[in-house]
């Protein structure tokens, strides 16, 4: 058994670009030099993707981690055999949605059992997931549910900017209701702990406001910053965490991108996702923090519009793999 960290790559929605970018990523020999990767998914779908992207790799169906060879040139796949061979590209389907859940469920079980050191997820489609009978907002909430985790958050990382979210996949009005001092404080703590584990001794953290200009002393909004954010920042500061805020989001991300802060605490989904994605979809990585296991992901969706065309970029998945390798506990 390899002493390198064992990383399970979940295939995501088989009708999307996940299988293609997985095959392209595993054609990069440097991945095998730093980890022991394998796929949890459907071997016949990976074989079809291999023909599309023409990587000349071999896909091998296995049933357990012990069977994996972890050798460059052969893609080991724990084959759940859930999808039809002629699954249409770019179409929402219950069978693909259920499959994306089952692949992740299997990988989480392997992680919970100590058989792997990390999970890297290819994208799923939320509508297909729901059609498949699994009513979750996305990967993050599934991971939290199946690991029994209560305090967790989504962190997006790019080469020049990191963002962690207080709320994610809810409507904007619901997000404002869900933001409270306790949740904001927990996310600040998660940011501090995560970056310290990553080797940043004293992370500099900045917290976004909710309203334009962070409320500008009550000029905008109804005192949300004073009610929902200030108590959390004060509590964290009293514990010695280097955190400031709430600050206006329109200038904060510029400052963080130039290096003033190590991470930004965003209040809601688009407040944090927008700046990361402006920097480039291929550079962003999604990391779930607070879990007992390591999980990273691409920072893009299933891209149904280009699925099956062999043109999807694998760069975000490769970066997600590297982040998983860096964060994973070392073996041997």
Could you please describe the fold and organization of this structure?
Helices cover 39% and strands 17% of the residues. By secondary structure, it is α/β, with parallel strands linked by helices. The radius of gyration is 20 Å and the shape is globular.
pLDDT below 50 for ≥5 consecutive residues: which ranges?
none
Strand share of the residues? 15-25%
For the CA atoms, what is the radius of gyration? 20 Å
Distance between the termini: 10 Å
Query: For the largest beta sheet, what order do the strands appear in spatially?
Result: 3-4-2-1-5-12-11-6-7-10-8-9
Note the run of SSEs as H and E.
EHHEHEEHEHHEEHHEHEHEHEEH
Give the structural class: alpha/beta
Mean pLDDT: 92
Count of DSSP H/I helices:
12
Indicate the overall shape. globular
Report the major sheet. 12 strands, mixed
Question: Can you lay out the helices and strands and say which pair or pack?
Answer:
Elements: E1 6-10, H1 18-25, H2 29-34, E2 36-41, H3 43-53, E3 58-62, E4 74-79, H4 94-112, E5 118-121, H5 126-131, H6 139-147, E6 153-157, E7 162-165, H7 172-178, H8 181-197, E8 205-208, H9 224-238, E9 243-247, H10 249-257, E10 263-266, H11 269-278, E11 285-289, E12 295-298, H12 315-327
What is this entry, summarized?
This protein is an alpha/beta fold.
